[in-house]
Amino acid sequence: MVILTGFLGSGKTTLLNHLLTRGDARVGVIVNDFGSIGVDAMSVAGQVDSMVSFGNGCLCCAVDASGLDAMLGKLSAPSAGIDVIVIEASGVAEPRDLLRLMIASENEEIAYGGLVQVLDGAEFDRTRAAHPELDQHLALADLVVLNKTDRITGADRERLLGTIEELSPGKPVVPTSHGRIDPALFFDAERERPDDGQLSFTDLLAEEHDHADHLHTAYDTVSFTSEQPLNPRRLIKFLEGRPAGLYRMKGFVDFGASGEHDRFGLHTVGGFLRFDRGRWPSGRRRTELVLIGAGIDTDALLAALAGCREDNPENVDERGMLLVLRHVEEPEPVG
Ligand SMILES: Nc1nc2c(ncn2[C@@H]2O[C@H](COP(=O)(O)OP(=O)(O)OP(=O)(O)O)[C@@H](O)[C@H]2O)c(=O)[nH]1
After folding, report:
1. Which of 165, 227, 264, 270 is the most exposed, fewest CB within 10 Å of its CB?
2. What is the Å distance from ligand 1's center to 175 Cα?
3. What is the separation of C-alpha 51 from the centre of its chain, rounded to a whole number of angstroms?
4. What's the confidence (pLDDT) of residue 192?
């Protein structure tokens, strides 16, 4: 579940429509203003399988945690076949309140996938003057989208990037026009299929060549594999120091630990980091990670990951594993 937030007119709906038409994932959408969504574009895209909406204008005023849970329950039901839920919340909804609602949610099917803040590049200064709370919103975001770059000069763009960096240091910022962001930065193109051992990011990479426009040329993608288990402490250190341009990481990590659920799925969106635990398909136990970013030194990142390999995998660093477990958000699967 991804929260898409931004002030009125910043381009959230445009971005969402872009995700719906360009991504292969099945998207469930929760909006706080039915009228603001391009319903036609969505039905043409045929991607929205369920949409929950309410006209109260403000998501966090309209629902409490159990109300939200009911909506999420509808969208996360296996019968809905939804891969990702996007909550589109206008600037009037406080991201902090939304996050609080998410944390209070008792739905175990749903994993939080990051808070994305959309900014109108052309209106940034005026919006900030009128809504000083924008500074706090930026500090909460996992990923910042600087939209409407077609309406600003290169010099303004650099200045805004500098201001955003000051307000939310180290936060990844993706400059776009018309919300044309790579869906892979938000979620998987296809659902993972653990049963046949296919990794969804393979599809994700294959998708790169299908798109007609040159959206992807702005991104660097690199993958890392290791038959040798990784050291948890060193990997966590790498993750904590990952560069701001590294928008997304995805894959599975083998720490050499043994147990029922010793496959650690890794998922990062901007500053957000989560592990979940699962089982290795037989014979496929190895670390496989995909890194997506812009302006990243892929060689240096690969070298740093290679440096996380554990030379004595038989001695699992149990205390190091505790650092990993701190980021496990989902309960251990049962059975
Ligand atoms: N020039 C330009 N216009 C854009 C861009 N992105 C969106 N727009 C236009 O800006 C207007 C607002 O975009 P929306 O996507 O509706 O913005 P929103 O954040 O969903 O707005 P609310 O629903 O009011 O919160 C629309 O007319 C869009 O076509 C962009 O990158 N460049």
Report:
1. 227
2. 14
3. 20
4. 43
Q: Which amino acid is at 334?
A: V
Judge contact between 238 and 292, C-beta under 8 A. Answer: no
- pTM to 2 decimals? 0.69
Q: In angstroms, what is the span from residue 35 Cα to ligand 1's centroid?
A: 14
Ligand 1 centroid–CA 147 distance in Å is: 9
- Considering the domain boundaries, does residue 335 fall inside one? no
Ligand 1 contact via 9 beta carbon (within 6 Å): yes
Same domain, 276 and 133: no
User: What is the amino acid identity at position 115?
Assistant: L
Does residue 238 or residue 9 have the better pLDDT? 238
Question: What value of ipTM does the predicted structure carry?
Answer: 0.98
CB 32 near ligand 1, within 6 Å: no
Percent of the chain with pLDDT over 90: 29
**pLDDT tens digits along 108-167:** 777 778 889 999 999 999 889 988 888 988 988 888 999 999 999 999 999 999 999 999
User: Within this chain, do residues 146 and 212 fall inside the same structural domain, yes or no?
Assistant: no
Q: Give the residue numbers spanning the domain of 172.
A: 2-184
Find the Cα–Cα–Cα–Cα dihedral 52, 54, 57, 61, rounded to 10°. Answer: -90
Do 289 and 174 belong to one domain?
A: no
The C-alpha atoms of residue 93 and residue 264 are separated, in whole angstroms, by 34
